[in-house]
UniProtKB/TrEMBL annotation:
<dbReference type="InterPro" id="IPR002195">
    <property type="entry name" value="Dihydroorotase_CS"/>
</dbReference>
<protein>
    <recommendedName>
        <fullName>Dihydroorotase</fullName>
        <ecNumber>3.5.2.3</ecNumber>
    </recommendedName>
</protein>
<comment type="pathway">
    <text>Pyrimidine metabolism; UMP biosynthesis via de novo pathway; (S)-dihydroorotate from bicarbonate: step 3/3.</text>
</comment>
<dbReference type="InterPro" id="IPR004721">
    <property type="entry name" value="DHOdimr"/>
</dbReference>
<dbReference type="GO" id="GO:0006207">
    <property type="term" value="P:'de novo' pyrimidine nucleobase biosynthetic process"/>
</dbReference>
<dbReference type="GO" id="GO:0004151">
    <property type="term" value="F:dihydroorotase activity"/>
</dbReference>
<feature type="binding site">
    <location>
        <begin position="17"/>
        <end position="19"/>
    </location>
    <ligand>
        <name>substrate</name>
    </ligand>
</feature>
<feature type="binding site">
    <location>
        <position position="176"/>
    </location>
    <ligand>
        <name>Zn(2+) 2</name>
    </ligand>
</feature>
<comment type="similarity">
    <text>Belongs to the metallo-dependent hydrolases superfamily. DHOase family. Class II DHOase subfamily.</text>
</comment>
<dbReference type="GO" id="GO:0044205">
    <property type="term" value="P:'de novo' UMP biosynthetic process"/>
</dbReference>
<feature type="binding site">
    <location>
        <position position="43"/>
    </location>
    <ligand>
        <name>substrate</name>
    </ligand>
</feature>
<feature type="binding site">
    <location>
        <position position="249"/>
    </location>
    <ligand>
        <name>Zn(2+) 1</name>
    </ligand>
</feature>
<feature type="binding site">
    <location>
        <position position="253"/>
    </location>
    <ligand>
        <name>substrate</name>
    </ligand>
</feature>
<keyword id="KW-0378">Hydrolase</keyword>
<dbReference type="InterPro" id="IPR032466">
    <property type="entry name" value="Metal_Hydrolase"/>
</dbReference>
<feature type="binding site" description="via carbamate group">
    <location>
        <position position="101"/>
    </location>
    <ligand>
        <name>Zn(2+) 1</name>
    </ligand>
</feature>
<feature type="binding site">
    <location>
        <position position="17"/>
    </location>
    <ligand>
        <name>Zn(2+) 1</name>
    </ligand>
</feature>
Length: 350
């Protein structure tokens, strides 16, 4: 029988888009209520490519936190073909930068400065391997000849396997995995390779893009896949395997940027992030494994202490509002106008 209350170690979000300026101020509280720490994506305009820029961005995040919030942003650098090798040593020596993000140029929102030719960043990857700084991969090819639903699988074959062969000790996280192929690759990989899984890829398959008509708010990158892949992701997340951990990829966009002829990719899930994961784990009958996935595996991979605070959820459904404010506009959250089965109760200090 499903328990009606669930208390776990306070979780961390190992993949998050916080944006900047007024948008940052609009969304930060949702994450800070639930998570102790988050790996913050660097795909701002312009991208966060240096330690100095990451530290400035970190200060802006801290300044936007609600009074009394205990939340620690873990910063990342955006890898470009011009990233100097020395920036890696600077990042490692900083106490603010925890990883470097690889976007294939053109793969998603603000990825134009990303990598076009992998060989051009080999020296930087060599330095990352040496300094044990994790590489976070948006694992999709951008080749327009490759079917959009195959882009993750093809990335693994074309780029990830050669990368792993060349840099066997490089610490890598395959971000927001969406396919059985990615699950199998990561499951069979050594402990220096891991993957994050979003709540939306655990709960939705690609039918959600076309339920009764086109649904732009369910459009994200990598795109939702067919049910067999969702089932593989759910099985991986709930298996207890430490290769897999929580990363929401919550990515707010103004409503008008989604509801348009060429809409942006990204689901906003920060408002109910842990609650949505609890639904997925409940669906698999494995609520007992939520804590390790949400609060232990990521911290262990990043070699950071596990959190000591606790957080409680209750099995009380609540209605998600139709919209949240977002920097002078609005954002349509996942489950807008519908219910989420679990509610956040409280956090407690040990
Ligand atoms: O759906 C997505 N939205 N995927 C990404 O990789 C980027 C993100 C964003 O920044 O909006
Ligand atoms: Zn992302």
């Amino acid at each position: 029988m499903t328990p009606t209350r669930l208390e776990i170690t306070r979780p961390d979000d190992w993949h998050l888009h916080l944006r900047d300026g007024d948008a940052l101020a609009s969304v930060i509280a949702h994450t800070a209520q639930r998570f102790a720490r988050a790996i913050v994506m660097p795909n701002l305009k312009p991208p966060v490519t240096t330690v100095a820029q990451a530290e400035d961005y970190r200060r802006r995040i801290l300044a936007s936190l609600p009074a009394g919030a205990r939340f620690r942003p873990l910063m990342t650098l955006y890898l470009t073909e011009n990233t100097p090798v020395e920036e890696i040593a600077r990042a490692k020596a900083s106490d603010s930068v925890f990883a470097v993000k690889y976007y294939p140029a053109g793969a998603t929102t603000n990825s134009d400065s990303g990598v076009r030719e992998l060989s051009r960043v080999h020296a930087v990857l060599e330095a990352m391997q040496k300094h044990e700084l994790p590489l976070l991969l948006h694992g999709e090819v951008t080749d327009p000849d490759v079917d959009i639903f195959d882009r993750e699988r093809v990335f693994i074959e074309r780029y990830l396997l050669p990368l792993q062969a060349r840099f066997p000790a490089l610490r890598m996280v395959l971000e927001h995995i969406t396919t059985r192929d990615a699950v199998e690759f990561v499951r069979g990989a050594p402990a220096n390779v891991a993957a994050t899984i979003t709540a939306h890829h655990l709960l939705l398959n690609r039918n959600a893009l076309f339920a009764g008509g086109i649904r732009p708010h369910n459009y994200c990158a990598p795109i939702l896949k067919r049910e067999t892949h969702r089932v593989a992701l759910l099985q991986a997340a709930t298996s207890g395997d430490a290769h897999f951990f929580l990363g929401t990829d919550s990515a707010p966009h103004p409503r008008e940027a989604k509801e348009t002829a060429c809409g942006c990719a990204g689901l906003y899930t920060a408002h109910a992030a842990l609650e949505l994961y609890a639904e997925a784990f409940e669906q698999a009958g494995r609520l007992d494994r939520l804590e390790a996935f949400a609060s232990f595996h990521g911290a262990d991979f990043y070699r950071l202490p596990r959190n000591r605070e606790r957080i409680a959820l209750e099995r009380t459904p609540w209605m998600v509002p139709d919209l949240y404010p977002l920097a002078g506009s609005t954002c349509t959250p996942m489950r807008a106008g519908e219910s989420v089965a679990w509610s956040l109760v409280e956090t407690t200090t040990p």
